[in-house]
TrEMBL record:
This is Actin-related protein 2. SUPFAM superfamilies: Actin-like ATPase domain (SSF53067). Belongs to the actin family. The keyword Ubl conjugation does not apply.
């Protein structure tokens, strides 16, 4: 997510993913005038023709070169700003390595020439957005889930709980479930498609036993999802996720 200070909603929201054309598709891709690097939502449209990678794992940047492509896309293509004329606020999950923050700050200053950089923990900013300074924040994002107590605007690392299980892991597990039901799913090429299925069709059951019986005895939980000209009929057996 990226945007400008003072606005109520992000200017742009796109997946943190980088794609490179597969060798066998390079010739066909030339006709589409694509660059060597594809970033964000465009990767989903060309997922079967790209080798995709995720520069951030469990909230920690693992591939700084690819992360640079993400930032380039955010600053120049989405926000359309000159970084040297701006200051930037970055978010960071709690308990991340100090070296990760140091590298982020170094990149913002030396590569993009921002005039000011500030990094804040996501949980604290979540409370600020609600007009609060004190509270308990439970935040489950793409790669990491954490529970953070915040008092008077300060988090307490020694009381913070972190678990490296979040949305991306649920998506990966859903790929496995669909594969078991006979759908030809690839964890790389179809990952973004399955993520969309998860976000549009999946939910948390408030009556586990009832949902379980419905899944066994009826087709009431059958949902359809269309991808291009194909239609996937997905039986969402939520008790598998328990």
């Amino acid at each position: 997510k990226c945007g400008f200070a003072g606005e109520n909603f992000p200017t742009s929201v796109f997946p943190c993913v980088v794609g490179r054309p597969l060798l066998r598709y390079e010739e066909s891709l030339q006709e589409q005038e694509l660059t060597d690097i594809v970033v964000g939502a465009a990767c989903a449209d060309l997922r079967h023709q790209l080798d995709v990678s995720y520069p951030v794992t469990n909230g920690i940047v693992q591939n700084w070169d690819d992360m640079g492509h993400i930032w380039d896309h955010a600053f120049y293509s989405e926000l359309k700003v000159d970084p040297s004329e701006c200051k930037i606020l970055l978010t960071d999950p709690p308990l991340n390595p100090v070296k990760n923050r140091e590298q982020m700050i170094e990149t913002m200053f030396e590569k993009y020439n921002f005039s000011g950089v500030f990094i804040q923990i996501q949980a604290v900013l979540s409370l600020y957005a609600q007009g609060l300074l004190t509270g308990l924040v439970i935040d489950s994002g793409d790669g990491v889930t954490h529970v953070v107590p915040v008092v008077d605007g300060y988090s307490y690392p020694h009381l913070t709980k972190r678990m490296n299980v979040a949305g991306r892991h649920i998506t990966s597990y859903l790929v496995d479930l669909l594969s078991r039901r006979g759908y030809a799913m690839n964890k790389s090429a179809d990952f973004e498609t399955v993520r969309e299925i998860k976000e549009k069709l999946c939910y948390i059951s408030y009556d586990y036993k009832r949902e379980y019986q419905l899944g066994l005895e009826t087709t009431i939980l059958v949902k359809s999802y269309t991808v291009s000209i194909l239609s996937y009929f997905v039986l969402l057996l939520y008790f598998y996720l328990s």
